[in-house]
Recover the amino acids of this structure.
């Protein structure tokens, strides 16, 4: 039987210290205080003293609170009955459903053997032209959405959750406003996507330690579904809150901070999560889309900066649209050659013309005279923003490509687009 | 008598262990879990009777009082035939074999033998009984793929030996004894096909170190012509994310004129290694006609694999490079990325509660980086032949800012600096090596005065370009404007190279010499135009033709034709044609 301890030596931040023996590293414990029972995890052991991180926070923990070790590390239940449910970061139900305790699996499991990975080759269709046409999302890709506070990134995630052609969606919320949590829940329920979604939600008012667990439990569940042959999409929002939670704990633990107070292992910690994205040969897959808010719209801030080095591209969400410049899917070349023969051409041509439109806008703002070509570009740019970039546009890839041809034909002569004549002959409308 | 210690503290991957018998700094030890799993670790600090160990694995489940077995051996790698074409993790575990045993996921505490034990190699002796030999001297050889793999007297044996017996030519496994050597005291030592060497020590069995003077052709024009690297030289490629570091490394791995390429993927994306893993076996090396994989060795400790092994991976890579160098071969070691390795050092330093230096990197960062790059070099072996290890390390500076400690520490010790810039990659000018910020102390394949001249045009053209942003085209003189167009022309047709075009991706030294002369001629030509628009459209057209010229086979009919077109067009605008 596991021992029970009654004497807490030290309480600092969310970390309590007790004298205990026979405890294993990362073991879980129950801490019972007048506030109720909370889970806690061993994070450091030294000469008989054990530091535990209390998930619900140390507020209200007394020096004689009861600590009982459970003899196992953090685990998460896994079964199909998870679908449609909402849990907290610690795995407790947030909806009114029953507690699930079957088939527990460890979180934060080992990394996939690189020699067993395969070159990604399948596209995830989202129905959003700025993604499907211009920066295709690929199965097993990990992509962040770089954004600033106030942008509709959660709406974008919710729409992707709704429209993406996947079997299971795992939604991990970290430091969400309560309203956002309710938005996700209602939106998914309203559109009937809840039944294929598992949610792990941590709101801004919940204990900070639970925020740290959200990516791990989400990815552990995703991994289980994937090994059963399911195509899983993991949506995480917001990884900056996760990093900030890490910073908070690290500082409490008196660790030496590296950049802007973040711990030195920020890169490794983020990478360990993002690298869970994988395509299992002959089985399922995990694709990760994660929101990273950039404090002060600064991409050199440690969180977006480290993220950019880990992920396979990034989407910039600015002014309610996915920016065509800067946004990049590093894996798009693997898939957009096989969709339709005009895909790459439309992708390049439309972006080049849009870049020219931006230059014209600049010239216009400086008071230069607008020529005939400028007028064409202005017409095109406005249509491109309305019919392609607007996030409410929801059309399949093929239709989006047709739409692109139509826009080009309405605004330009074929030779002005620089498209090879072979494709013009085949696709140019009219 | 086994040396066993007891765990008294666990903090992430740092263990504090109380010991009774002597321990060795940097020796390997195994922490034993309750279920018998042994986790490899390394002693990194000793204080009194407590040793601090970094564990190369996840430490979940360890508890106070668990046993730690000290081995007395420094962290070592196995050297012998069978290394090439292998894919190892940072501790030299063969990953494909690991996958065969454990499936999709890595399993902690699982260590496999680095060299296949069951393969037999055709050994041919090259010494006879009575010969005098010392460490590093060849005892014989075995064929390994396209190479003659020398079997050498183990590097760690000190003094001279006389050959007591040597096995006849025949088939042997790596663990078979192939020679018996007697030292000065009459003691007999057994030499096998394989030997081991501690990774953190450089192999020094050579006559002397030479100065790197011979250019190493990478087939990237901007590198070979403007910022060359020499055999045995060391260079670094810092750059922000998305600037094309990895693509450049892959191109270099494919085309560099060396015998063996060792790729160390240290703390980077697994996806990138996979591309190399799956594509290299199918690509043909134009020099040998065999698969590229036959000259490649991959060490892969990606970002989600245990952090401490990241540090080991760069040392494993350079040790294997030194081993092949001892056979008189030229090796290129590509380390991607050294910043991740430095971050691993920072993590450990933080856990050891050392006084932090800049950005919390440890104070010894510079000396560690310096001693790593110093392992590159060209050497003359005792038998007179030369071998070299060239090191190219990428650096991933935080925020793309080159002022940070890792970039700065690296710049102090390298001979060439290929700085990638976000600005150039945003303009899709690849390879995004910044022509004005980068430098090289090595001598390339082209006359340095001409290169300096061309570089001057780039630099002055850039000044004009900057000025034009302020005063507009109208305020720029015709001469300046033409200079600007020439610099843009040089940039577009010579510095930039299409990595995805099967001909343009690689430009041989010979072709570079030829093309550079022609481009140089254009740069030096006095040309005249009636106005700026004509000048611009002339150079735009010339750029287009010259780009096509880059995309056709060297010295083909088409090549000649395009060249003629370029010079016909030039003659029309030249003043003294």
């Amino acid at each position: 039987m596991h021992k029970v301890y009654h004497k807490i030596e030290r309480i600092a931040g969310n970390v309590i210290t007790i004298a205990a023996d026979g405890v294993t590293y990362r073991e879980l414990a129950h801490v019972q205080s007048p506030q109720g029972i909370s889970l806690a995890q061993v994070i450091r052991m030294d000469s008989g003293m054990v530091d535990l991180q209390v998930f619900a926070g140390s507020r209200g923990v007394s020096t004689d609170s009861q600590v009982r070790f459970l003899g196992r590390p953090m685990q998460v239940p896994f079964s199909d009955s998870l679908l449609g449910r909402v849990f907290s970061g610690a795995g407790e139900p947030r909806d009114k459903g029953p507690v699930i305790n079957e088939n527990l699996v460890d979180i934060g499991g080992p990394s996939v053997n690189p020699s067993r990975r395969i070159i990604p080759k399948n596209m995830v269709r989202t129905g959003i032209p700025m993604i499907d046409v211009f920066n295709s999302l690929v199965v097993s890709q990990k992509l962040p959405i770089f954004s600033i506070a106030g942008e509709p990134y959660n709406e974008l995630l919710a729409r992707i959750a709704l429209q993406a052609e996947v079997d299971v969606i795992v939604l991990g919320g970290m430091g969400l406003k309560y309203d956002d949590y309710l938005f996700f829940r209602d939106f998914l329920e309203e559109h009937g996507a809840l039944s294929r979604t598992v949610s792990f939600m941590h709101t801004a008012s919940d204990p900070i330690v639970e925020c740290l667990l959200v990516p791990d439990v989400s990815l552990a569940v995703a991994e289980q579904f994937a090994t059963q042959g399911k195509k899983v999409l993991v949506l995480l929002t917001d990884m900056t809150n996760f990093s900030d939670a890490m910073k908070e704990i690290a500082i409490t633990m008196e660790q030496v901070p590296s950049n802007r107070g973040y711990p030195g292992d920020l890169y490794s910690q983020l990478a360990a999560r993002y690298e869970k994205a994988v395509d299992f040969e002959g089985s399922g897959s995990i694709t990760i889309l994660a929101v990273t808010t950039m404090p002060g719209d600064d991409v050199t801030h440690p969180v977006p900066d480290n993220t950019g080095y880990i992920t396979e591209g990034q989407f910039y969400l600015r002014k309610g649209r996915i920016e065509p410049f800067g946004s990049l899917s590093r894996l798009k070349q693997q898939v957009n050659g096989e969709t339709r023969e005009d895909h790459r051409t439309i992708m390049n041509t439309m972006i080049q013309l849009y870049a020219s439109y931006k230059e014209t806008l600049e010239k216009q703002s400086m008071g230069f005279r607008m020529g005939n070509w400028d007028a064409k570009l202005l017409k095109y740019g406005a249509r491109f923003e309305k019919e392609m970039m607007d996030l409410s546009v929801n059309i399949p890839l093929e239709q989006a490509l047709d739409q692109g041809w139509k826009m080009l034909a309405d605004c330009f002569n074929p030779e002005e687009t620089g498209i090879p004549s072979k494709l013009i002959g085949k696709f140019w409308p009219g | 008598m086994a040396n066993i210690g007891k765990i008294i503290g666990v903090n992430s991957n740092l263990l504090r262990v109380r010991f009774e018998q002597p321990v060795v700094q940097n020796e390997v030890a195994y922490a034993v879990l309750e279920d018998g799993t042994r986790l490899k670790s390394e002693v990194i600090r000793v204080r009194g009777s407590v040793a601090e160990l970094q564990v190369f694995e996840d430490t979940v489940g360890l508890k106070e009082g668990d046993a730690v077995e000290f081995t007395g051996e420094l962290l070592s790698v196995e050297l012998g035939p069978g290394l090439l074409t292998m894919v190892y993790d940072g501790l030299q575990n063969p990953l494909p074999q690991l996958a065969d045993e454990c499936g999709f996921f890595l399993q902690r505490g699982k260590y496999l033998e680095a060299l296949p034990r069951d393969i037999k190699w055709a050994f041919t002796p090259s010494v006879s009984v009575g010969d005098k030999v010392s460490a590093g001297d060849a005892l014989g050889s075995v064929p390994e793929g396209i190479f003659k793999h020398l079997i050498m007297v183990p590097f760690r044996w000190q003094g001279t030996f006389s050959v007591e017996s040597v096995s006849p030519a025949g088939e042997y496994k790596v663990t078979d004894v192939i020679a018996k050597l007697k030292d000065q005291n009459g003691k007999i030592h057994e030499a096998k096909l394989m030997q081991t060497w501690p990774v953190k020590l450089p192999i020094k069995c050579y006559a002397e170190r030479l100065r790197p003077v011979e250019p190493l052709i990478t087939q990237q024009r901007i590198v070979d012509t403007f910022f060359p690297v020499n055999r045995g030289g060391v260079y670094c490629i810092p750059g922000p994310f998305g600037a094309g570091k990895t693509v450049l490394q892959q191109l270099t791995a494919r085309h560099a004129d060396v015998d063996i390429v060792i790729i160390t993927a240290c703390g980077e994306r697994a996806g990138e290694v996979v591309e190399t893993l799956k594509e290299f076996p199918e690509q043909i090396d134009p020099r040998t006609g065999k698969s590229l994989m036959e000259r490649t060795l991959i060490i892969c400790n990606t970002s989600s694999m245990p952090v401490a092994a990241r540090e080991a991976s760069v040392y494993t890579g350079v040790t294997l490079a030194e081993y092949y160098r001892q056979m008189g071969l030229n090796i290129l070691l590509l380390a991607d990325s050294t910043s991740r390795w430095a971050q691993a050092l920072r993590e450990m330093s933080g856990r050891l509660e050392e006084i932090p230096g800049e950005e919390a990197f440890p104070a010894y960062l510079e000396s560690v980086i310096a001693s790593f790059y110093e392992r590159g070099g060209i050497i003359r072996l005792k038998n007179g032949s030369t071998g070299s290890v060239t090191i190219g390390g990428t650096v991933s500076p935080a925020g793309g800012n080159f002022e940070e400690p890792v970039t700065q520490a690296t710049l102090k010790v390298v001979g060439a600096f290929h700085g990638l810039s976000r600005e150039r990659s945003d303009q899709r000018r690849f390879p995004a090596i910044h022509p004005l910020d980068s430098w090289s102390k090595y001598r390339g394949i082209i006359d340095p005065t001409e290169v300096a001249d061309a570089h001057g045009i780039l630099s002055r053209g850039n000044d004009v370009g900057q000025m034009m942003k302020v005063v507009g085209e109208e305020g720029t003189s015709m001469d300046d404007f033409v200079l600007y167009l020439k610099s843009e022309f040089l940039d577009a047709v010579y510095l930039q190279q299409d990595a995805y075009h099967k001909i343009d991706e690689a430009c041989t030294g010979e072709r570079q010499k030829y093309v550079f002369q022609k481009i140089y001629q254009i740069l030096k030509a006095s040309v005249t135009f009636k106005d700026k628009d004509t000048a611009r459209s002339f150079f735009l057209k010339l750029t287009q033709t010259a780009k096509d010229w880059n995309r056709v086979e060297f010295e083909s009919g088409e090549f000649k034709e395009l060249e003629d077109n370029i010079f016909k067009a030039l003659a029309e605008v030249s003043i003294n044609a």
